[in-house]
Amino acid sequence: MPSRLAVLVSGRGSNLQAIIEHFDNLARERVAKVVLVASNRAESPALIRAATASIDIAQFNAADDGSELLGLLRKFRIDLVVLAGYLKRIQPAVINEYAGRIVNIHPALLPAFGGEGMYGARVHEAVIASGAKETGVTVHLVDDEYDRGPIVAQWRVPVNQGDTAESLAARVLAVEHVVYPRAVEMVAILQQIESKRTD
Ligand code: GAR
Question: Which ligand 1 atom minimizes the distance to the CA of 14?
Fold first, then answer.
């Protein structure tokens, strides 16, 4: 049985799109399937991508104690939660119930250029201002601190002379689209092996 994924989004949803397409392309051999796309913002363009792909969508309150999100994850029998440009903190109750089963992508080489308030263009602006010669992509498990959980995958991306936050963001994003679906696939496979071992 494929793992049941929930993807949480706040914005554009290009990583969501890459994940949907990756698992669709694996067809019968796929190990996971996106069954829910949920957002704290009803106007998130990512929800339109999900609806176009005939995936269930939902909006939830990110400012409560986690009950609304947990209710959704239970209702859809979610195995793995994938954060794709989701910009709110995950509530402790959700982290407790889904410990080791929430993954995030960050557009830099963590632990550098991470932490509260570091998202989107701000990350790339900080990288350029620092004079760093390389940045990258990090996929990690989520714990109760922003951008701090165990790292699952990293990929380096060069910073070129004359880069702007926009040009660097585009180079990093192209790598995110390759790395994230494959890292999610790997986590889903490991989770399936682990759950068979403990059955
Ligand atoms: C991506 O670059 C992702 O790494 C970043 O937001 C963007 C979402 O784009 N996430 C963070 O900065 C988290 N700290 P998308 O909505 O097109 O996938």
Answer: 17
Of all protein residues, the one whose alpha carbon is nearest to atom 18 of ligand 1 is 15
- Phi, psi (deg, nearest 5) at residue 89: -75, 140
pLDDT given at position 144: 83
Please count the residues of the chain: 199
Q: Domain 3-198 maps to which CATH number in 3.40.50.170, 1.10.530.10, 3.30.365.10, 2.60.40.150? A: 3.40.50.170
Of 9, 10, 15, 155, the residue with max ligand 1 atoms within 8 A of its CB, to mutate for a pocket test, comes to 15
pLDDT tens digits, one per residue of 125-139:
999 999 999 999 999
Q: Which of the residues are catalytic? A: 106
CA 31 to centroid of ligand 1, rounded, Å: 24
The structure tokens 């996929």 sit at: 139
Cα 138 to Cα 103: distance, rounded to the nearest angstrom: 10
- Amino acid in position 69: L
Q: Which two tokens stand for residue 22?
A: 């990756």
Q: Is the pLDDT assigned to residue 28 strictly greater than 80?
A: no
For 9-19, what is each residue's pLDDT tens digit? 999 999 999 99
